[in-house]
């Protein structure tokens, strides 16, 4: 099994120090969207079968320098939890991509990007937008 397997519900810290909170149910997604009213959250939708997704995730993690009190990062294995990915699209009005990063503030998707456009610098810029 990979680093983020379907069988675990524990949060995972990667080698760079990101404490990924796993997202594996539609109810959890509702809670994450509600949580975004208190602190911005970022969703990383990852296809565990795609080398481009793996490369984008690795590059994102290596450049991560966002303080843990500024934003909460959530990880979705969209192969294992396709219904959650579908609900993200429906509830947030974001077209499905993989890999994909979605920034949520106050219950709304305020930024999303995918593939090679995923980078921490752009995420931080949108995090600080008011």
Oligomer: single chain
Could you say which structural class the secondary elements and strand pairing correspond to? alpha/beta
User: What is the total domain count?
Assistant: 1
Q: CATH superfamily, please? A: Glutaredoxin
Task: Describe the SSE topology.
Elements: E1 12-13, E2 19-22, H1 26-35, E3 41-46, H2 51-63, E4 72-77, H3 82-92, E5 100-105, E6 108-114, H4 120-127
Parallel strand pairs: 2-4, 3-4
Antiparallel strand pairs: 1-2, 3-5, 5-6
Question: What do these coordinates show?
Answer:
- The protein is an alpha/beta fold and 130 residues long.
- 32% of the residues lie in helices and 24% in strands.
- It has one domain (16-127): 3-Layer(aba) Sandwich (Glutaredoxin), CATH 3.40.30.10.
- The chain is built from 4 helices and 6 strands.
- β5 (100-105) and β6 form a beta hairpin.
- The protein is globular, with a radius of gyration of 13 Å.
- The chain starts with 11 loop residues before the first strand and ends with a helix.
- The relative contact order is 0.20.
């Amino acid at each position: 099994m990979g680093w983020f397997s379907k069988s675990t519900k524990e949060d995972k810290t990667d080698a760079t120090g990101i404490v990924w909170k796993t997202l594996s149910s539609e109810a959890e997604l509702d809670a994450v969207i509600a949580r975004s009213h208190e602190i911005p959250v970022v969703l990383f939708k990852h296809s565990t079968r795609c080398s481009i997704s793996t490369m984008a995730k690795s590059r994102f993690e290596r450049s991560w320098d966002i303080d843990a009190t500024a934003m909460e990062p959530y990880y979705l294995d969209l192969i294992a939890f396709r219904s959650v990915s579908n609900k993200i699209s429906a509830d947030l009005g974001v077209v499905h991509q993989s890999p994909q990063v979605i920034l949520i503030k106050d219950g709304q998707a305020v930024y999303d990007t995918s593939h090679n456009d995923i980078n921490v610098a752009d995420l931080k810029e949108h995090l600080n937008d008011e």
